[in-house]
Predict the structure of Acetate kinase.
Amino acid sequence: MKILVINSGSSSIKYQLFDMNNQSVLVAGILEEIGRTGSTLKHRKNNGNGEFAEFTHSQPVHDHAAGFHLIMEFLAHPTKGWDLSDLSGVGHRIVHGGEAFRLPTLIDKEVISTIKAMIPLAPLHNPANLIGVELALEQFQSVPQVAIFDTAFHQSMPSYAFRYALPNEMYTDYRVRRYGFHGTSHQYVAKQAAKRLHLPLDSVNLISLHLGNGASATAIRQGRSIDTSMGMTPLEGLIMGTRCGDIDPALQGYLVRVTGKTYEEIGTLFEKASGLQGICGSNDMREVVRLAESGDSFGTLALDMFCYRIKKYIGAYFAVLGRVDAIVFTGGIGENSPTVRGRCCESLDSLGIVVDEGLNQHRGREPFSINSDESRVKLLVIPTNEELEIAIQTLELIQARQDSGI
Ligand code: AMP
């Protein structure tokens, strides 16, 4: 069973072909800088012995259609690619499913037009995602294609968690509410955590921390998201690489008045020039930690702020969940930074959270635990794999349809 996963972004297309019999990656790649002068395709092929042959190809790629055709040349190439004649399905990452999509969904014309209706909610992402869908439908006409939404996992949030305290019409007429993102990642690590804890997913309570360039925390009760830190857009919540996270909503108007910048410019500043970058000049946590360790006051402040905000969310979600079986760290920072993990859990022993500093130094691509023996709450580091989760959900839907004879 082979499943192709496509993540078509605004200036890049990522793809992975999985053999679902053993969940291994057969070929994978990323085409970046579409529409700009220096487009580069990085493509890798599994040699079957655990090693990958890597290919880099640069040429101008003017648009997604040209990019998709270039990718197809590599994907189906007799030596660099794989035989795609027995492809079972294609899974597409779609950023925003609004309230329309709570589950993986087989793509047809109606689904495409509903995703289009979500464009005002995700004006940068959904159009780019849809281009990938339309190109793949053309290419693989007889293969079922499935949409997996970043927002879907959080559709289980109760209204008191997802509503903003704004007049009701803002919700009913303009769809203003908290949607949350990174759902596929939170869902994947929740499943992995349940396995590691030897508990059924529907009994497990978790705080999941996806800490990458974008960052979000999710409170998971009995395997379902009941609250998450990102909101109507990914700007809300934790401090991120370049996003500010939670701020006073009056700030945008104030800054427009005092700086002379436009409303849009201040919006861009919150999105692209804030967070770690805005405080210490780097959005890379490795550099932030290096600055902090060398005594740089901005680096120290950025690290302090980043970890303090996470700690506040841990406290809030502890109160919301009542019982927490495990806190899960994932994403580039969560998986790789003992400093951040340690700081987020510092002095939380009254909540039953105690890190083992020796275990916390471990590195690896397999899940590992970093809690001490006396810690009531397990502390897990679980490398995320959104592409694999998309492939799993795609296959599950296709098999369920086959089983029910559809
Ligand atoms: P992601 O968005 O999940 O790919 O995460 C990317 C971020 O992970 C980078 O911006 C870095 O800040 C962070 N990162 C990657 N490796 C490390 C590391 N060894 N230590 C600390 N942070 C890291």
